[in-house]
Amino acid sequence: MNAALPGSHLSPRLEPRAVPPALLEALKLRFGGQFSQAAAVREQHGRDESAFSVPPPDAVVFAQSTQDVSDAVQLAAQFKVPVIPFGVGSSLEGHLLAVQGGISLDVSRMNQVLAINAEDLTVTVQPGVTRTQLNAAVKSTGLFFPIDPGADATLGGMTATRASGTNAVRFGTMRENVLALEVVTASGEVIRTGTRAKKSSAGYDLTRLMVGSEGTLGIMTEITVKLYPLPEAVMAAIVSFDSLADAVNTTIQIIQMGVPIARCELLDATTVRIVNTYAKLNLREGAMLLMEFHGSPAGVQEQVEMVQALADENHGHAFEWAKTPEERTRLWTARHNAYFAGVQSVPGCKAITTDACVPISRLAEALLVSVEEAQASGIPYFMVGHVGDGNFHMGYLIDPSNAQERDTAEALNHKLVARALALGGTCTGEHGVGLHKMGFLVDETGAGAVAMMRAIKNALDPDNILNPGKIFALS
Amino acid sequence: MNAALPGSHLSPRLEPRAVPPALLEALKLRFGGQFSQAAAVREQHGRDESAFSVPPPDAVVFAQSTQDVSDAVQLAAQFKVPVIPFGVGSSLEGHLLAVQGGISLDVSRMNQVLAINAEDLTVTVQPGVTRTQLNAAVKSTGLFFPIDPGADATLGGMTATRASGTNAVRFGTMRENVLALEVVTASGEVIRTGTRAKKSSAGYDLTRLMVGSEGTLGIMTEITVKLYPLPEAVMAAIVSFDSLADAVNTTIQIIQMGVPIARCELLDATTVRIVNTYAKLNLREGAMLLMEFHGSPAGVQEQVEMVQALADENHGHAFEWAKTPEERTRLWTARHNAYFAGVQSVPGCKAITTDACVPISRLAEALLVSVEEAQASGIPYFMVGHVGDGNFHMGYLIDPSNAQERDTAEALNHKLVARALALGGTCTGEHGVGLHKMGFLVDETGAGAVAMMRAIKNALDPDNILNPGKIFALS
């Protein structure tokens, strides 16, 4: 056992379990070419976008069906060996890392769009479908799926982490948008939760218990989500501010006024500079709000006028418009790539990312000091925010081999989270707990609530085989 | 043990447990005047709006604080005696009935609005606050709370049943609107779930596990919900149709077009007649859509024009407007009283209510045949629907002493639910499972999902003291 406690946030607790050769033989027999112990394959399934480095899983199974998932889990259960679901590996918090060894269950080949029910505004997909694939598949219906984390994540991963993105301010997160699931339980049983009805009071909300459970309570094999009509009119605008505080205060006022803004994103001046370099753009290098408005032409115009007035009051520069779909795509692609732009801005670095979310009125208090602290630390950073939701990310760009930088970054992260919690917020708005925030979860919700989570985990996965060692320690 | 199985929907399974005199003494000592064994008090806490009749609880505790709830639960836990939370008794599904005896824990005196955070659009209340009390308390802030079941239910009861109402088509249900909870667990411990941040990925979604758990997993002692800015403009309209099918099809098209309608309610001609009599109104006695539009003046006008065009295409009569706040209140009060109007239309009757909800495209199939079957049965009925959500209610008005009428009504209910499930819907859109839908829950979600619910219940309430015998049978 590693000496570091999970609460230390510094190094994950490694508790590798023996993987009996008989299990590997049985998996090989059942899965043939869908089974691999090759070092390269294991390595690829043993890392994500987090700054952690731990030994890879013992083997990888490439599932192609619910039956594959069920069979793999049943075999793993028989030998009490961990199973870690894997999509595209875009987790930021170490969700995918095999801290107790075991089998990585890659569902990326389960990438069928199973049923588009346009007349009900729902779609059912397999977990390996990515968000861009989904939107391409439904495009001809005039509908779209709004949840858009930075990476082109799978719907399985997005469901498992309760993901959101730039549209959440208007459309909610995976919490609000998943209607029904098919789930393989820890015993390999296949169950269904929810229906395609828009609402239900039929017993415990197992759907939402699974959403955000990070692979620890079940493995999702079918996901039904809501779709929305493409808006009649869309306008995207950039407004630049000389002061970060002015940009934040504009955001707070937009939300408090109830403007139904579809996207409201913030980058500070440092991050605009990084994005300009990466995406070869010429954005004005001040604090910047990127906004999008949806509705009827008249409705969009009303929203724009309200927001322009608020930005003016807060000393914003003139609005710049992305009028064509191509300009909008370029702008939002740049925003989505801000994480990668940040990481590429410091060769060889790893990003330690934060993900606090606070009640909207406390956003200035939470955000401004955090940026000042990052600047004062001397560690390169970037800052992007889904600020309409009160959610923002710092990325501290550290040399992973430099323990002092890592400590400094973790200390910044600690201060930022402590501040967010003191302001009534959460340590993670959308990335999940994974390995990185296990201590923060206890700080945030209290030992009693974590004990309740642990009791649920014990009840549904008594041998602790589903992505063990994540969210909370069992002992 | 009663011979009738819960799946029979006909009579609840009674399994009274012995309540030791020592517990009653201890409660009396601790709670003094807040404790009662008086027959009238017990009777009042032993019934709800359902058609079931079972013996009342053994005693009633009137909690005035979280500490009271915790102490009462701790004492009950010590003696393994059931505790049933009670608000205003407006459950329609037998949630409050003491089928295993025990203590009714009345939280109606916990009726403080604890914190109005207008700048964050949130409010924190005790569970005994009712929806009209809440809206009165926040009125001066320019905000409102949209969830409005027919009765003036408590926020505790609404959270416990995952309630919705007429505004859910625009604002969602309690599922979407509860942000955070304080909960007393089965051991009497006080825990907190969620924060006031708008979104979070911090571990299992215990908030949403509690929402809709019908008092079986914990007793809510503080509830934080979202508020919304009062719309700049509101217009309410009635449109009457000669054919019920035309009214339903208009609704389906409104939703499929993505009109952001705030309310979209249906009454059939029979129910309009009942409401006219009860509320002394002169509504045209055809199938009727009651609608409300929120937004800017221009936005409301756009919505109205789209809906008028759709209604015209479906042979709707001319729109009638409720223009003043007083006219709107009169109209919506009449709608909210439809249940009571129905019950009063047949002296001495009890209503057996249904609550199916289906994907919007299947609403006509689900609803029209159900109304025809009710008409053919000869049993008086009423029909109201939150049709914008695909949710509708039949109330079969039976003589509770007439076994044949009850059987006929339950048979109608069975057919209606089976049809909704076959169409991809749910047996309960907003009322909850309670005693009445335990069999339907299994039909809907399958034995595997119910087994998962049972495992969670066993883990969080191992002695089965929190509102036992509801949602599912433990054995």
From TrEMBL, chains A, B:
<dbReference type="InterPro" id="IPR016166">
    <property type="entry name" value="FAD-bd_PCMH"/>
</dbReference>
<keyword id="KW-0809">Transit peptide</keyword>
<keyword id="KW-0560">Oxidoreductase</keyword>
<dbReference type="InterPro" id="IPR036318">
    <property type="entry name" value="FAD-bd_PCMH-like_sf"/>
</dbReference>
<dbReference type="InterPro" id="IPR016171">
    <property type="entry name" value="Vanillyl_alc_oxidase_C-sub2"/>
</dbReference>
<keyword id="KW-0274">FAD</keyword>
<dbReference type="Pfam" id="PF02913">
    <property type="entry name" value="FAD-oxidase_C"/>
</dbReference>
<comment type="similarity">
    <text>Belongs to the FAD-binding oxidoreductase/transferase type 4 family.</text>
</comment>
<dbReference type="InterPro" id="IPR006094">
    <property type="entry name" value="Oxid_FAD_bind_N"/>
</dbReference>
<feature type="domain" description="FAD-binding PCMH-type">
    <location>
        <begin position="53"/>
        <end position="230"/>
    </location>
</feature>
<dbReference type="Pfam" id="PF01565">
    <property type="entry name" value="FAD_binding_4"/>
</dbReference>
<protein>
    <recommendedName>
        <fullName>D-lactate dehydrogenase (cytochrome)</fullName>
        <ecNumber>1.1.2.4</ecNumber>
    </recommendedName>
</protein>
<dbReference type="GO" id="GO:0008720">
    <property type="term" value="F:D-lactate dehydrogenase (NAD+) activity"/>
</dbReference>
<dbReference type="GO" id="GO:0071949">
    <property type="term" value="F:FAD binding"/>
</dbReference>
<dbReference type="InterPro" id="IPR004113">
    <property type="entry name" value="FAD-bd_oxidored_4_C"/>
</dbReference>
<keyword id="KW-0285">Flavoprotein</keyword>
<dbReference type="GO" id="GO:0004458">
    <property type="term" value="F:D-lactate dehydrogenase (cytochrome) activity"/>
</dbReference>
<dbReference type="InterPro" id="IPR016164">
    <property type="entry name" value="FAD-linked_Oxase-like_C"/>
</dbReference>
<dbReference type="GO" id="GO:1903457">
    <property type="term" value="P:lactate catabolic process"/>
</dbReference>
<dbReference type="InterPro" id="IPR016169">
    <property type="entry name" value="FAD-bd_PCMH_sub2"/>
</dbReference>
